[in-house]
């Protein structure tokens, strides 16, 4: 998982008055840790981590997903258009 | 055993097609007459082999390929045939809008593919150039269908032309982008279009929109190939050994929306998508694929942030290479029990280093070294290769980070220009390039791994490539 962008952090803090940088650090770390656990291989740990994270999000940043989705969508719109295939075509004259 | 090298000038057969005369030589007027005879007493296997030889010789005659035909001593009966060598080798049939790869040696950066037919000459600039590989992510439809002579042209010259039959039929479900070393289990990287997404980990699944977005899939594979093989970080192309890696793509839009095809799981609290690593092996076996690493592309519109799950090595297969880390014994194992897997959005920003960052996690291992994210202050109970921590944040960062296989690696005292927050206890190994953050940290486009992780990966990748 990649780090939260500084702008996303600002948006999260703006959307949740009283939210601190360390709160954002904590959810970022919780999400990073969760990628270690495959639910099918270790359901108990996954359930525990999910419950802790959900409780933390509900208490500190209930709009987390909503803010992330809006931010991610804007980032995708900034995505560079795919470069067109570089081709050169030389047609042959048809034989008469 | 005698070997006869040259072009197949002509082939004649008797009326019942049980006997073929093959004329081999570079001069049509000066050839060696060899033969293949199909006898009634031949077993099915022998007959199949002889027919296969004959088929190769007929094609070689039509295309003008040089062959090397081997006979038994004192006999003109051909027992084996080698075609080539060729300067270039196209992978599979070229199909409009499908991946198309050509392998060879020493391709320079300006290499181009030239398709020459009766009606046009179409020159295509590959989307990725490696010394052994030219990859076009979507073969242009402007190339005339039917037979073309394909060559590679560059500042270094032009290769021999190779006949290829360009098609506008359906794109392949499975494409081998690079065949890799000719052995049963070469180091394998798979790209997969996911079929079903689990909304919340309860098998509340829906059809992955990526299966309706073939063009987007080709674009994101193009991005991934370039992000893995054309950036500064070269851990998956050590000493150009990526030529030995098998790289393949699977896009199967006939897949049902069912559990077995659900390789991605949405996180309900955020926009993270998780790879369901434990289903990857059985999914890929349906396509005859065993993989070490898997990038699962998906089309979720809500969960577009990638995440990764490291390898679980097979501790019972192959010869492990032992190593020590701070005096403790570990192993680099050659085979995987479960592949390192990552889920990446088809709409992932192509300006980011997502693919190589996530593969940085994926390629590491459960018990023999986990490559961790460095942008947080998390500490762990298991073996984190690239992260350590102090008892208190006020303690000085130790000058030495770790000793790997007898070599001591320093710590990064400054965390590049980012700096360690005053509350952090964790610290990182010394950077290879002090001007760019660590690839596993808040990276930039020129980021690479630290010195220790790079050394550890060099050994781990070598063990996998050498198996």
Describe the structure.
The complex is a heterodimer of chains A (96) and B (467). By secondary structure, chain A is mainly α. Chain A has one domain (6-77). Chain A has helices at 6-15, 21-34, 43-60, 64-77; one strand spanning 87-91. In chain A, helix 1 packs antiparallel against helix 4 and helix 2 packs antiparallel against helix 3. By secondary structure, chain B is an alpha+beta fold. Chain B has helices spanning 44-63, 214-229, 280-285, 354-362, 451-466; strands at 3-13, 19-27, 30-37, 66-71, 78-83, 88-90, 100-104, 112-116, 120-124, 128-130, 133-136, 146-154, 157-158, 162-166, 174-178, 188-193, 196-198, 205-207, 246-250, 262-266, 273-275, 293-298, 307-309, 312-313, 321-325, 328-332, 336-338, 340-345, 388-389, 400-404, 407-412, 426-429. A 6-stranded mixed beta sheet of chain B has the order 15-19-16-22-28-23, covered by helices on one side. In chain B, strands 3-2-1-4-5 form a 5-stranded antiparallel beta sheet. In chain B, strands 8, 9, 12, 13 and 14 form a 5-stranded antiparallel beta sheet that branches. The two termini of chain B are 32 Å apart. The mean pLDDT of chain B is 95.
């Amino acid at each position: 998982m990649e780090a939260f962008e500084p702008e996303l952090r600002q948006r999260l803090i703006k959307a949740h008055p009283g939210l601190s940088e360390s709160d954002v650090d904590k959810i970022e770390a919780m999400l990073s840790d969760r990628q270690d656990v495959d639910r099918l291989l270790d359901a108990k740990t996954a359930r525990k981590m999910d419950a802790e994270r959900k409780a933390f999000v509900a208490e500190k940043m209930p709009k987390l997903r909503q803010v992330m989705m809006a931010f991610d969508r804007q980032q995708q719109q900034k995505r560079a258009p795919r470069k067109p295939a570089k081709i050169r075509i030389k047609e042959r004259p048809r034989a008469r | 055993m005698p070997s006869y090298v040259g072009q197949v000038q002509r082939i004649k057969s008797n009326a019942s097609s049980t006997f073929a005369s093959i004329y081999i030589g570079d001069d049509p007027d000066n050839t060696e007459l060899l033969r293949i005879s199909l006898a009634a007493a031949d077993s099915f296997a022998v007959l199949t082999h002889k027919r296969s030889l004959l088929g190769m010789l007929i094609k070689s005659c039509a295309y003008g390929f040089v062959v090397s035909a081997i006979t038994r001593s004192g006999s003109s009966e051909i027992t084996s045939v080698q075609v080539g060598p060729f300067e270039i080798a196209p992978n599979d049939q070229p199909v409009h809008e499908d991946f198309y790869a050509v392998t060879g040696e020493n391709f320079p950066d300006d290499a181009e593919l030239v398709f020459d037919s009766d009606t046009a000459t179409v020159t295509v600039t590959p989307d990725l150039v490696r010394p052994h590989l030219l990859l076009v992510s979507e073969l242009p439809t402007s190339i005339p269908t039917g037979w073309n002579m394909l060559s590679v042209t560059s500042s270094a010259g032009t290769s021999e032309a190779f006949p290829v039959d360009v098609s506008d039929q359906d794109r392949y479900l499975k494409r081998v982008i690079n065949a890799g070393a000719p052995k049963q289990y070469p180091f394998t990287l798979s790209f997969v279009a996911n079929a079903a997404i689990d909304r919340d980990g309860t098998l509340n699944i829906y059809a992955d929109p990526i299966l309706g977005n073939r063009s987007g899939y080709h674009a994101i594979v193009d991005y991934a190939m370039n992000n893995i093989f054309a950036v500064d970080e070269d851990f998956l192309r050590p000493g150009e050994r990526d030529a030995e890696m098998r790289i393949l793509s699977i896009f199967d839009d006939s897949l049902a929306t069912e559990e077995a095809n659900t390789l991605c799981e949405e996180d309900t609290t955020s926009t993270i998508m998780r790879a369901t690593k434990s289903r990857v092996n059985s999914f890929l076996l349906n396509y005859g694929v065993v993989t070490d690493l898997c990038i699962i592309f998906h089309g979720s519109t809500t969960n577009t942030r990638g995440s990764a799950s490291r390898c679980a090595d097979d501790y019972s297969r192959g010869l492990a290479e032992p190593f020590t880390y701070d005096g403790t014994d570990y192993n680099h194992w050659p085979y995987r029990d479960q592949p390192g897997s990552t889920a990446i959005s088809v709409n992932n920003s192509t300006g980011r280093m997502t693919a190589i960052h996530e593969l940085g996690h994926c390629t590491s291992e459960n018990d023999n070294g986990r490559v961790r994210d460095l942008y947080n202050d998390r500490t762990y109970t298991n073996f984190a290769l690239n992260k350590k921590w102090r008892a208190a944040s006020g303690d000085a960062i130790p000058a030495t980070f770790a000793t790997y296989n007898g070599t001591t690696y320093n710590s990064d005292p400054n965390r590049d220009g980012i700096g360690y927050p005053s509350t952090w206890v964790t610290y990182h190994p010394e950077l290879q390039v002090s001007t760019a953050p660590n690839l596993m940290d808040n990276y930039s486009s020129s980021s690479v791994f630290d010195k220790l992780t790079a050394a550890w990966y060099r050994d781990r990748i070598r063990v996998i490539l050498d198996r």
